[in-house]
Design goal:
- One of its GO terms (molecular function) is ATP binding.
- It catalyses: tRNA(Gln) + L-glutamine + ATP = L-glutaminyl-tRNA(Gln) + AMP + diphosphate.
- By secondary structure, the chain is of the alpha/beta class.
- The protein folds into five domains: 10-101 and 213-262, HUPs (Rossmann fold, 3-Layer(aba) Sandwich); 102-212, Glutamyl-tRNA Synthetase, domain 3 (Alpha-Beta Complex); 272-340 and 474-551, Glutamyl-tRNA Synthetase, domain 2 (Orthogonal Bundle); 346-462, Ribosomal Protein L25, Chain P (Beta Barrel), CATH 2.40.240.10; 555-697, no CATH class.
- It has a seven-stranded mixed beta sheet with strand order 12-27-28-29-25-26-13. Strands 23-20-21-22-14-17-24 form a seven-stranded mixed beta sheet, with no helix packed on it. A four-stranded antiparallel beta sheet has the order 4-5-6-7.
- The protein is flat.
Length: 700
């Protein structure tokens, strides 16, 4: 029992405590309450798994309730997509509800609150209301309409309901406390006028309740016992409870709000507004673009429902915000696909191979294992012939010692087939290799048991028979953003970090067994990664999406770039000490090449800031990055840190640092003006001619 209790997350602990204190288990009820103003994303998946997971654990109903209180942004398309996503994830709701189901009840409660003197119609503009509310450090003040009579408020509110007034002329506000430390309690809006068509109620209503009013009251109507939301609603809890206080009947279940940390995933954005911008600006093809973090996008790319549920289970439920590495999501996917995806062969960048000693009219059908991880997956027949395609990168005319693929005079094994040896090549007029001529060991068929079949060779390559191959469009997807936190940089627009190579389309040549592949099928293209059939496929052409690589290329790249920057800093030290100018120049070229090769904006930014210290070599490194990287500029550095860098660098004893700093300042007019007096002082004392020449040009 102790072990079981220890494994409970904090919301389960709360529920267990409620039950032990007498709350009846048959009154437990949960809900998943999306707003139908966009498609669900991976962050919502965490909430879905939590809400429906609680329902399964406690055998309690879970409602799907659409909080559809804003017709300006909500559409039936989003409702349908949300339902499809939930079903695909494997969850089933008890009742399908809508906040719009309760519009009449919410209106009646609002009238009751007006009669009780705790709600009033305000006729100020939204700008005036915002000013009148004050600031977090300054109390708000009562507005001119706060003490309207109950009769006038009732008349105005009915007029609002009847459509007698234009949008923006009146709002209904709760009368709470204009001096509350919680600004949400400073007479929050309850209703606004919207002459908009609603996807369910059509044009029946001219006023719509605000989310904060409708949400808690909807929970109460549905008798939700535990209203679970993300941490940004912590400040809303007091308001949630205040609204419930106005209508609560002690004979009914009173909902209680509990907050958990939402899912923050690196290398993506989770804001619906920003995701909508990606769609509207046609940066992606739609909400279900395989580069999007939407559940529909992940599904189209080839993610499995099991991998997403597993991911949500691993990250758990916590009270503190943290950022989860995208690599963990990909790990969960690889783990699932490795067990379940059939292995097939495909070549995406083909080079022709001719087996010169294989008969021209001969064909063989070789046995190929479908999945070594699944003993029940069986085998398939794989056609083999004289002419094959290999991946172009699997051949080098002259290979280095540790190249374990095909090269002239060397042998490799063809997967499920024979050992071949490269004998000669053909080239076009530009010197490009167009064909490789090889010979094969006739007695080396894989699995035949012959002595030749047991020979060890450099490597094993995948291939397809040209005669039998089927052509397909293959979309090679990568992460949509190059930065791990694209929407957290105040000085940058998140669109600045769009990965221009996030989609590359190639023609692939696939083994013929894939001719019968259907939408939803997933495969491992051996040595290339996992791929899934896309919905754009048709009877005349298959389209495959790359779901994920066999290895985490981004993690490897991140480590390489971090290691490269550390190594470059050591090269800086050697460069500064080198007395031979020719050798020093060669070292500088290497340093600059390294800097230019780094794509990680955050890593570059952090490296510059870390090197702002009283060390000439460190300052040189920071200034070199600032001048030679095309991924970062002086505008991207925190102004205080940038000023410190300039101040320390201008005074550096190392001439190279002073020169670089002056060059960087020349490109930064605002900072140049700030440092003009200091530069004049230095000019009067400067003895180095090169530095002095730059100063003279800058200051006169």
């Amino acid at each position: 029992m102790a072990t079981e209790e220890k494994s409970l997350h904090f919301i389960e602990q709360i529920i267990e405590e409620n039950l032990s204190n007498g709350f009846s288990s048959d009154k437990l009820r949960f809900r998943f309450p999306p707003e139908p103003n966009g498609y669900l994303h991976i962050g919502h998946a965490k909430s879905i798994c939590l809400q429906f997971g609680l329902g399964l654990r406690y055998n309690a109903p879970v409602n799907l309730r659409f909080d559809d209180t804003n017709p300006a942004k909500e559409e039936q398309e989003y409702v349908d997509a949300i339902k499809e996503d939930l079903q695909w994830l494997g969850f089933h709701w008890d009742e399908e509800r809508y906040a719009s189901d309760y519009f009449q009840q919410l209106y009646d409660w609002a009238v009751l609150m007006i009669k009780k003197g705790v709600a009033y119609v305000d006729s100020q503009s939204s700008e005036a209301i915002a000013i009148q509310k004050g600031t977090p450090t300054q109390a708000g003040v009562d507005g001119p309409f706060r003490n309207r009579s109950i009769a006038e408020n009732l008349a105005l509110f009915e007029g609002m309901k009847n459509g007698d007034f234009p949008e923006g002329t009146h709002v209904l506000r709760a009368k709470i406390d204009m001096s509350s430390k919680n600004m949400l309690l400073r007479d929050p809006l309850m209703y606004r006028i919207l002459h908009r068509h609603h996807h369910r109620t059509a044009n029946d209503w001219k006023i719509y309740p605000m989310y904060d009013f409708a949400h808690g009251e909807s929970d109460y109507i549905e008798q939700i016992s535990h209203s679970i939301c993300t941490l940004e609603f912590v400040m809303h809890k007091e308001l949630y409870n205040w609204f419930l206080d106005q209508i609560y009947d002690s004979n009914k279940v009173r909902p209680h709000q509990y907050e958990f940390a939402r899912l923050n995933l690196n290398y993506t954005v989770m804001s619906k507004r920003k995701l909508l911008q990606l769609v509207q600006d046609k940066i992606v093809t739609g909400w279900d673009d395989p580069r999007m973090p939407t559940i529909s996008g992940l599904r189209r790319r080839g993610y499995t429902a099991h991998s997403i549920r597993k991911f949500c289970d691993i990250i758990g439920v916590a009270k503190r915000e943290n950022v989860i590495d995208y690599s963990l999501l990909e790990f969960c996917l690889r783990e699932d696909l490795n067990k379940n995806a059939p292995r097939v062969m495909a070549v995406l960048d083909p080079i022709k191979v001719v087996i010169t000693n294989y008969p021209e009219d001969k064909e063989e059908f070789l046995d190929a294992e479908n999945n070594p991880e699944d003993s029940t997956a069986g085998f398939r027949k794989l056609p083999f012939s004289r002419e094959l395609y290999l991946e172009r990168e699997d051949f080098l005319e002259q290979a280095p010692a540790k190249f374990f693929r095909l090269s002239l005079g060397n042998e490799v094994r063809l997967k499920n087939a024979y050992i071949i040896k490269a004998e000669s090549i053909s080239k076009d007029s530009q010197g490009n290799i167009t064909e490789i001529q090889v010979s094969y060991d006739t007695d080396s068929l894989s699995g035949s048991g012959s002595e030749a079949s047991k020979r060890k060779v450099a490597g094993t390559l995948h291939w397809v028979s040209i005669k039998h191959a089927i052509k397909a469009e293959v979309r090679l997807y990568d992460r949509l953003f190059t930065d791990e936190a694209p929407d957290t940089h105040k000085e940058k627009n998140f669109l600045d970090f769009i990965n221009q190579n996030s989609l590359q389309t190639v023609v692939g040549y696939l083994e013929p067994s894939l001719n019968t592949a259907q939408l939803g099928d997933q495969f491992q293209f051996q040595r290339l990664g996992y791929f899934a059939i896309d919905k754009d496929s048709n009877s005349s052409e298959l389209v495959f999406n790359k779901t994920v690589g066999l290895k985490d290329a981004w993690e490897e790249k991140g480590k390489k770039e971090a290691n490269l920057l550390m190594a470059t800093q050591k090269e800086i030290n050697k460069y500064v000490k080198e007395k031979d100018q020719t050798v020093a120049q060669i070292g500088l070229v290497s340093i600059l090449d390294n800097i230019k090769s780094i794509d990680n904006y955050t890593l570059l930014n952090q490296t510059i800031v870390k090197n702002i210290k009283n060390d000439a070599n460190a300052l040189l490194f920071a200034n070199l990055i600032l001048q030679h990287s095309d991924k970062i500029t002086f505008k991207d550095i925190d102004p205080e840190s940038l000023a410190k860098l300039y101040n320390m660098s201008i005074k550096s004893q190392l001439v190279a640092v002073r020169i670089l700093t002056l060059q960087n300042l020349q490109a930064n007019t605002a900072s140049l003006l700030v440092f003009k007096n200091l530069l004049l002082e230095i000019q009067a004392k400067e003895k180095n001619e090169a530095v002095l020449a730059i100063l003279n040009a800058m200051l006169f």
